[in-house]
């Protein structure tokens, strides 16, 4: 019965969303990939919001029900059937009677199962498609026959691009680089390692009182360049986010300088390498939104490059939905820990492989701690940390690693504002 109700809700909201789009004809910018979708969506919104009226997907509303909710401007009713009935009524009213509508929609499009993207592109045809990255072992691979099948599913979005559309892609990704050669529409590459139309360079962490304070880089396009600063985050992968957002802005007629200035208003979403003051004079790097091998690798690299830390601590939770690749990928991440951290804390059964690999590659047993769940890990870490420590916290959604951050942050009363999964539906799980 629950499945029937869900399918009915999805069908009705989708029909309303399609009708609304047909009435107002907004420019649709759709973002997908296996890493950095939400950050890219938020950065594109930040760059364009002062130029025109823009709406973006709320949080990570990227599913078959989240995308219609975004288009209709409706909230997630979670497990409240009356809330969904109200959404259907409100959506119908908006679809038929709304007089004004944003000029631009920035939509995040994700896939969990085979067929998800095909169902979406049966009715959604973007003007701009942005693909962030398609790593060798993507998240959600557990539900697909192979990593290549996940990549093929995501590329269906690019196949749905309008004839007069623009394809924006990560030029450092070899799959996307080859795929861009087959796209009939104009393609704009962005990257960090290889020269392309929009290139990020000189990316670095800047400091305040010897504590990480933010990220900066130089963006180049043709014969122009501009410096972009993003406070409150670290990590070289933010260079890709900024460069991709600027590539989208250029496709919509903005200048490089105009887009670079707008990027200063970009606030990365919670749980994406955000910097928080910790108790006892520590610094927390909060990367708890989700985890995958590629993202964990990038987070450890960022921790490795942090300067002025008295000690570096990596708190790593299980990476979920990796299927048969799970054990090896946890081991691979563990192999990299001794190069980046002085102390490793793992959370979850799968991360035992991370701990074992870290021990085999040189980390002393006395500097490896293992826990089954996040709250206990956070509470016990309170007694172990010291002034000057920099603490990276990362794990998949199901591990709830944000609870570690809440235990360690200097101002836990601000958790609802700064951490992921703070709404009531998550808090009751």
Task: Provide tags for this entry.
alpha/beta, UDP-N-acetylmuramoyl-L-alanine:D-glutamate ligase, Protein-Tyrosine Phosphatase, Chain A, 2 domains, 6-stranded mixed sheet, 16 helices, 21% strand
What does this structure look like?
Helix content is 39%, strand content 21%. The protein is globular, with a radius of gyration of 21 Å. It has helices spanning 2-24, 37-48, 66-72, 81-97, 116-121, 147-159, 174-180, 237-251, 256-263, 293-305, 326-340, 352-360, 374-381, 402-408, 415-418, 424-427; strands spanning 27-32, 54-56, 104-108, 128-131, 166-170, 187-191, 198-208, 211-221, 224-231, 274-277, 283-287, 311-317, 343-347, 368-371, 389-394. The two termini are 22 Å apart. The relative contact order is 0.10. The longest helix has 23 residues, at 2-24. The strands form two sheets. A nine-stranded mixed beta sheet has the order 2-3-1-4-5-6-7-8-9, with helices on both faces. Strands 10-11-15-12-13-14 form a six-stranded mixed beta sheet, sandwiched between helices. It has 429 residues and is of the alpha/beta class. The model has no long low-confidence stretch (mean pLDDT 94). The protein contains 16 helices and 15 strands. Helix 13 (374-381) packs parallel to helix 14 (402-408). The chain has two domains: 2-263, 3-Layer(aba) Sandwich (UDP-N-acetylmuramoyl-L-alanine:D-glutamate ligase), CATH 3.40.1190.10; 274-420, Protein-Tyrosine Phosphatase, Chain A (Alpha-Beta Complex), CATH 3.90.190.20.
